[in-house]
Amino acid sequence: MANTCESAVVTCEDFRLHQKPVGENKIAEFVENLGESSDIITRGGGIKDLVRPQQPGFRKSLLKDIEVSINLHEISTFFLINHEDCGGYQDLEFDTKKEEINQHKDDLEEAKEILKKRFPSIEIKLCLARKKSEETWDFKIEKLDN
Ligand SMILES: [Zn+2]
């Protein structure tokens, strides 16, 4: 059996999106709904290191992981999933929820451009995990462009 899979997810390392002792694993659920196998690449701040890395090596490191997925697992589709209330975006100090959401959408679009330029053959799909309410850790992953 070939060690290949269909897609990769690039998302934040935040535990609220992943495995918890009680509750749902939103990223695992997302992959399950795709009905295909996926690499999972995590970074604090999701794709932020592509768009505005705090240190130059951060972008390089994330690009290296993406390249591994393409070269080793022959992945052609990448899902970029940022999320609301992300600690990786704390330094941007948003005044409103709308400002925060728009920043994520702009960054996701920019990340897509960066990746398309470097890896023209891959397909990029953008998603944003929104909190179901302010009082919850429960997220819903929304597809932005499909
Ligand atoms: Zn985060």
Give an account of the 3D structure:
This protein is of the alpha/beta class. The protein has one domain: Beta-carbonic Anhydrase, Chain A, CATH 3.40.1050. The protein is 36% helix and 23% strand. It has four helices and five strands, in the order βαβααβαββ. Strands 2-1-3-4-5 form a five-stranded mixed sheet, sandwiched between helices. Strand 1, helix 1 and strand 2 form a beta-alpha-beta unit. The longest helix is centred in the last third of the chain and has 22 residues. The radius of gyration is 15 Å and the shape is globular. The protein binds zinc ion.
Determine and state the CATH class. Alpha Beta
Bound molecules: zinc ion
Shape: globular
Total number of domains = 1
* Distance between the first and last residues' Cα: 31 Å
- Please work out how many helical segments DSSP would assign: 4
Q: What's the pLDDT, averaged over the residues?
A: 93
Known CATH architecture: 3-Layer(aba) Sandwich
Number-wise, the strands total 5
Q: What is the N-to-C succession of helices and strands?
A: EHEHHEHEE
**If you compute it from the alpha carbons, what radius of gyration comes out, rounded to the nearest whole angstrom?**
15 Å
Strand content: 15-25%
- Range of helix content: 25-40%
CATH topology descriptor? Beta-carbonic Anhydrase, Chain A
Structural class comes to alpha/beta
Low-confidence segments, given as residue ranges, are none
Q: Sheet with the most strands?
A: 5 strands, mixed
Strand order of the largest sheet: 2-1-3-4-5
